[in-house]
Amino acid sequence: MNGTWKRRRISEKLAEKVLEVAHQHGYIPNRQASALRKNRSGVLGMIIPVYDNRYFSSIAQTFEKLAREAGFFPTITCTQRDPELEEIAARSLMSYGAECLICVGATDPDAIAQITKPAGIRTINLDLPGTQAPSIITDNYTASFELTKTIIERLDLDDGQRTTDLLFIGGNGNDHNTQQRVKGFVDAHEDTGLIPQDNFIQICGYEADSTETCFSRFVSENSGLPNGIFVNSTISLEGVINWFHKTGIHRLNNIPLGCFDWDPFAALLGKNMIMTRQNVPEMMRMLFKEIASPSSNEVTQIKAELVM
Amino acid sequence: MNGTWKRRRISEKLAEKVLEVAHQHGYIPNRQASALRKNRSGVLGMIIPVYDNRYFSSIAQTFEKLAREAGFFPTITCTQRDPELEEIAARSLMSYGAECLICVGATDPDAIAQITKPAGIRTINLDLPGTQAPSIITDNYTASFELTKTIIERLDLDDGQRTTDLLFIGGNGNDHNTQQRVKGFVDAHEDTGLIPQDNFIQICGYEADSTETCFSRFVSENSGLPNGIFVNSTISLEGVINWFHKTGIHRLNNIPLGCFDWDPFAALLGKNMIMTRQNVPEMMRMLFKEIASPSSNEVTQIKAELVM
DNA sequence: CTGAAAGCGCTTACAG
DNA sequence: CTGAAAGCGCTTACAG
After folding, report:
1. Model confidence over A200-233: pLDDT tens digits?
2. A296: in domain
3. With contact defined as beta carbons under 8 Å apart, do A48 and A60 qualify?
4. Which residues of A touch B241 (CB under 8 A)?
5. Which of A12, A78, A107, B113 is most buried, by the most CB atoms less than 10 A from its CB?
């Protein structure tokens, strides 16, 4: 049934007859048994924070397509940015025979590599880098630098003003991406001869709720809206937009709003929306190159695109 | 390692010692071998059209969460509304031992039930119904009726006008959901003493591109915008919004726009957006009820919610 | 009560 | 060249 008859003295005619009968009876090979014997399952596991935004859903969709085309069986599991769930999911995928584990935006990729290593299972990091496995990520610094510059150009600054009153909001202070994006944000200020205020950098988590709360507090402490906003992900953007929705959505039109990540509907909100679109197809291409021929534990950075 | 020691005369102390050593060595049980022997894999398979919209991504996310809570191993695969890929994916999931196959928005759910039946594998349909397995779907007729009524209320109709000039766009004429939504659309007209024009019902596929092309053609043939628009899914909405983006996004404010499906950013586009939000948590609750205790091949309809 | 054998559905090295 | 045995990592019915 698996084609090995070709290596035997079995006629094509007989083989076809057998295959035909098997097909009629609805025979489906048991890949679990095959995997057990061959010590090769063809399963490619992926853990990903969530499905419900364009960046991650597009990663999941492209990954599945390419994996199937390469003859693998893709299995994705979403782990809600919960490090404990990430470990459980990793073990579970290994239990089910995953040959290789792709960790997307994992809280602690090195901890997962630590689990897979003794079992001889490879790990590849995507979106957030680690040190124990090859990593493929966006060039967050450059993309953030460019996004910030573009927002600053659109700000309504007084002559001789040294500060921008531009707010950076959202993200996780412990993750590499947020750190690099803050760095790009700060450097873009300096590059323009401006300085960002300390309390204008609000790292309050990615979640919509926490971002909305944070933004609301910021506005009341600041006694008004900032000059412009840099939102760190579409997930956080939901929180910011919710605040505007509750307090007057038209105010969105008066303020330059940059968002790190892209969404087709969000891109059309307000008159001043600028979005960063990460290059998912290219990241996936690099991922399958890495799967096909393993390299060293280096970080590959992919350029993102500015969408206005 | 699997807990059966409790049925033997093995002391807890010894068991713990063994488990501890196994843990230190990074032992992970092989679920494929276990599944082979027990003839029970714990794998729950799901096929779904795409991940990249809120409705399907939320189904995927909730499914995974509940499956894991119920002790199953969820495996989702997206099949791009391609009937051939749906069959391949179904066979593939069966090969990997899926105990039960959940078909979400499948083009031909009965064809898949036909494949799984001989292997003794259950099928459950979600979103689109079939006749060979239990189905859990949205009450499309009622939701469409209500959405249409709400759009009609907002139309700027002349006194004595018999037609609404309200456009229905998007969807697939062969699928049950589109048929029911068109029925609700027509009946809501009649209920108001109005009639929909024939050429104002444009079933042009769900894809953004085909909807944009169709809308563009409609506007030029109609020599202008319709009075209002009923868009059949957020996927089709992307096409309509793209058209407005290219031709003047401000015009969105002047036209009541209803969309069957919900998206947090789309909900805030224009001043006249009305969205139908399908009740994913309730659908998932019913799904796991069905998984736990199989019923007959009936269709369960879940009410959707209107979001303004 | 418990050790050891049989067997799940495959693949492949080996004997004849 | 090819039939039949061994074995992948588990679980469980059975013998003693």
Report:
1. 999 999 999 999 999 999 999 999 999 999 999 9
2. no
3. yes
4. 264-265, 268
5. A78
